Fold:
Amino acid sequence: MLDLTRRTLLFGTMCSLSGCGTLSSLSAASEPLDTYDLRPVPGSTRGARKSRTLLVAKPQASAALATDRIMVKPDPAAITFLPDARWSDELPAMLQALLIRSISETGRVAYVGRTDAGPVPDKALLVRLDAFEVVALTGGMFEVRVEIDLTMVNDRDQTVAASRRFAKTEAIATDQTRDIVTAFQTVMDTLLPQMSDWAVRHV
Structure:
């Protein structure tokens, strides 16, 4: 079974030999990709309900992350994507939806929604997505890596109320797509409740 690094190199070699011209690009674009989604995971449902409104901004992300493809880093200087899979939406939009649903499902905030819709908020949650990727390690191992910065802003005067970085990795011994997606869900099973609880505390 080819690992991600070898598959990436093989794909690059084939493109060099064939030219990977416009016709082959159009053909590849027409092939359907398996689509994967992640589920929200709420924080604690215990505690008083706050009569506050919170709007969650669409996460800021690099061009490489602002796509529906699953990023792979075969080495620190290279970026590629899983050839046969994609997320259900562009990653920033998917993460925004996960945060909104995870915070809302705690039942502890009166309203949680997107910044482009909804009532005038008490607070706005700014999100920066720094990593959401698969990293090839030595010995045929891989690592799913997620790094997210959250900043809570007072809407009235635009001052920063709080900020925190959330990060987690999960090692896996396979390059199979379903195992990779499962590892991403395992990471988010930890991070989403942490981010939800933090947001509720500072809203």
